[in-house]
Structure formats: structure tokens, C-alpha cells
Amino acid sequence: MKLTRRDRIVLLSPVVLLLLAGLVGPALIGLVATATTYSPFATKVEFAGVKNYLTVLQDPQFLPSLRNIVVFTLVAVPLELSIGFALAYVLREPIAGRPVWMVLLLLPWLISPIAIGVMWHFLFGSAAGILDFVGAWFGQSEVASPISDVRLALAAAIAVEVWRMSPFVTFLLLPSLSSVPAERWEEASLDGASTAHRILRIAVPAVRPVLLTIAMLLIGLSLGTFDIVLILTGGGPGTATLTPALYSYAQAFQVNDWPAGAAGGWLIAAAVLAVGAVYMRLARRGVEE
Amino acid sequence: MTTLSGERRRKTAVRGSVLLLALAAFLLPLAWTLLASLGVVPDNNKRPPSWTGSITFDHFSEVGVAEPGFWEELATSTVSAAFATTLAIACAFLAAYCLARTRFHGRRLVTQGFLVLASLPAMAYVIPLSDVMRRIHLADTLAGVVLAEAAVTAPLAVYVLYGAIAQLSPEWEEAAVLDGAGLFRVMGQVVLPLVGPSVAATSIVLFAIDWNLLLVPLVLTSGDVKTVPVAMSDFFTFERDLDWSTAAAALVASVLPVALLVAASHRLVERFRLEQDNARDIG
Description:
The structure holds 2 protein chains of 2 kinds.
Chain A: H1 5-22, H2 24-33, H3 51-58, H4 62-91, H5 98-110, H6 113-125, H7 130-137, H8 153-178, H9 182-190, H10 195-223, H11 227-232, H12 244-254, H13 258-288
Chain B: H1 2-37, E1 41-43, E2 50-52, H2 58-66, H3 70-100, H4 107-119, H5 126-135, H6 142-166, H7 171-178, H8 183-212, H9 215-220, H10 228-238, H11 244-264, H12 266-269
Antiparallel strand pairs in B: 1-2
Helix pairs in contact in B: 1-11, 2-11, 3-6, 3-8, 4-6, 6-8, 7-8
């Protein structure tokens, strides 16, 4: 129906107010505050320019966290997308019990990341875990937990995140893949097309727009990784799994350097907004083609 | 024809085995945890290793002993997630309808902007958010948690519901307008029933996200209001030597409500769509 100007104001103001109060507003206040020496309990506030950001960027704790999150995102997101896609490809045509499989596959995503951290902490490390059990089969009495090994901890955290998110990618991709008309797969089989051909020529084009959307969500959320590593490794050993989000949280609420914490948070926001700008350009090109 | 059906049988076998392998990989850790919560744990001293213990529900009652507030925290999580979902969906539905029925240059940029907001990790804004909430006296209140959780999830809901409404042909609404219906009657009696399944699917996904949020309730509360993820993080930060079976029972109890919700409504959840119909949407 035709909306009047008044209608539009009435319809849009709830969401605008909600986001101003709970998301965009606080983010902008944070941006202004980090240009000063403001902290919730400071008595005097002075202009500080980019000093807080320089403090963070020069902190010997922050650089490893930056390296970790880049590795984490570059490894985890492509793995999640490809495993999620492969599973959706297998599930694209109705198969006996598909709804049941889908609900079961969603379980890792339905568990809170904090609970997953606790769970894998035990599964990796304790005598009742999976690794020791498998080790015992091969006559090993105890297997060292990968999360307490500096070289393996980040890989273990990535593995847990991939385990958690891949089936969710499947869930998001499945509608697009199963909406490809059955005749198209039939034709391809009759033509003797290879599986690679079917994937690249039929499946990938069908899901490309939604794949881009999912990639945006995964990259953004992965850049803010916090919950999953908090209990699993706590950022350690050393700084092996420290992330910018863990760093910012510790600065603001444990070390009581509020400006550094808020500045760290804004560095994450800036990275996500930069990815968002690329996403918008790519999505636009998709429409114009 | 025989070769074709042979081919088909071979394909079904391949699909079946890939699926079984994937299910094993994704579900084995969960089965391990479920068994531990029921008191069945591996015994690695035997060769080959075997399983010991008989099935018991004692570990679930131990959760209430180790963390006396656990059942209350489950209730807090449920109530806050339910309110936050309702608030986010209500605001998002109004906004999505407005965006879908207003033609303007840059509309795609606005909807994609909501998706970028949905991808923004909570850490990007929770530090100032906790300060703001404290100053407006909403720190450590259920209302504060609900408001913040609704704000976290509303952008995703706007994006998804916009996609659902934009696909509807406006004819139904125009017919209702000719019958004299006003804006809210059109939305409530024509649009809402048509996109009902999408709204329900989005609500369930939002509820699951809210249920599992950690950072937002963590920085906004300091003891009076405690959700399950916050309680878990407190607990395991300070007492890491907890008995594995009790921890496993707490994990199972914490996921059971959302798992049952999704299982019971899987037909609706399947209607959750991130994709948008680009063809209708140039402008």
C-alpha cells in the first residue's frame, strides 16, 4: 500500500530508537569517548586525539591478538563455508529423515559458545575426553591436550569454531540449493556431467548471493571472537589464542584501562565496517550483472 | 536404463555415507557429553579402553548443588530471550514493511547496512553500552538485558523479514485498502498472515541467538540478573577443577530448552531464509 510520510515515521521509529539505545548510539558514544581521556570514573576529561588507539596498537599484547584473529578468520571462514556447502550439496535432494538430520546437525550451533568452550576443554584435556580414549586404543597412556600447547592451541580453537559453525552454514544454504529445479540435476546427469561440473555450473551460481551474505556474517562475527576461547583457552597459553575482543574486555573490565578497552572495541568495529563496505560493493555488482 | 539406475544407486550410497560420516563427526562430541552427564565415562586403563558406569540422573541434581542458582538462571535466560525476541521482531517487522513498500534510491544499501550491523561483534560496542546502561539506571536489570539483546538481534530480523515481505505482491494490500482498511489493519490482517511462517522462523532463530548471548548480559549485570551463559563463564573461570560429569549435565540442561524448541518446530525453522529476491529489488 502507499505509505504516507507519517506512516513511515511511525513504522521506522521503533527500530531506530532501539538501535540508537542499544547498538549504534553506544558505539558512537564510544567513538567520541575514545578521542578523550574519558572513563566512567574519571573526574577530569581531556581531549586525547588518537592517543588511545596508539596505546593499543603499540601494546605488545595487542599485536599477537591481531595476528591470531587474522589467522583465525582466514582459516575458519573458508573451512566453514566449504564444509557447510558440501553438506548442503549432499542434503539438497530429499533424503530419508532429512528434517531429523538437519535438527541434529544444528545442535552444535544451538549450544552456547561458552558451553562449547567448557565441553571441548574437557574433551581435549581430561582423562574422560576423546583424545585420551583414542590414545588409549593405540597404547598411549596420556595425550597432551592441544589447548595447552603453544603451537596447537590456535588450531584447536579454529577446529572447535569450524565444528560449531559449519552445520549452521548448511542450514542457511539448504533453501537456495534445494530450490534448484530437479530437472536441472537430471539434465546434467543425462549429459554425463561430472560432479565438479554440477557443483561449479549449477550449485555455486544458485547459492552465490546468499553465500556472500553468509560470508559477511561469518567474517564479522569471527573478527569479534570472544566467547568460544574465553573458557577453552582463556587466550593462552601465553598469547597463543588471545583475540582483540579478549584483549579489549580485559583492558576495560580487569586492568581498568577503560579508554584502551573501548579503543580496542572500535578497532574491531572498524575492521568489520571495512569488510561491510567490500560486501556492499560485491553485492551491488551481483545485481547489475 | 539399468546403467542409469545403477548410477543412481551408487550416488545414493555415496550421499548416504558422506552424510553418516558428517553426522558422526558433528555428533560424536555431543554423544560423549550426553553419556558423561548420565554417568557413563570411558575407562582408559583397560586394553582396549572401554566404558564404565551405569546410567543415572544424579549428576543433574548435582548441578543444583554446585550452582544453587542454576534453575533460576535457566528461567532468567528463558524470560529475557523471549522478551528480547518479541521486542526485536515487532520493531523489525514494522521497519521491514516500511522498507519493502517504499521505493527510494539506495534501498539495497539500507538493507545491506542492516546485515553489516548484524555482523558487528558485540565487543565493538559493549564497553560504552555498559556505561550508558549504568548511567540510565538499567544496569543489572532484566529490562536492560532485554533492551540490549533486542538491539543485538533486530538488524538480522530486519534483513530477513524485508526479504520475505519484498517478495509479496502488493495486490492483497491494495484490495484491503479499497475495502477501507488502515495501515495497521493491512499489516496485521493481510501482511502478517502471509509472512507468518517467516516471522515464526526468524523468531525461533533469534530466540536461540539471545539464549546463547554471553558478552551483552555479562557486561550489563553484576549478580542480580544472571543468564545461563554468564553463570557458566563465572563458574568455570573460578572453579576449573569441576567434575566432568556435573559439567556435562549442566551443558545438557542448558541446551535442552532450545534444542526441544527447534526440534518441535523444525518445519517452521526450515522457512528461515537469508536470500533475497534481487530481481524485484533494483532501485
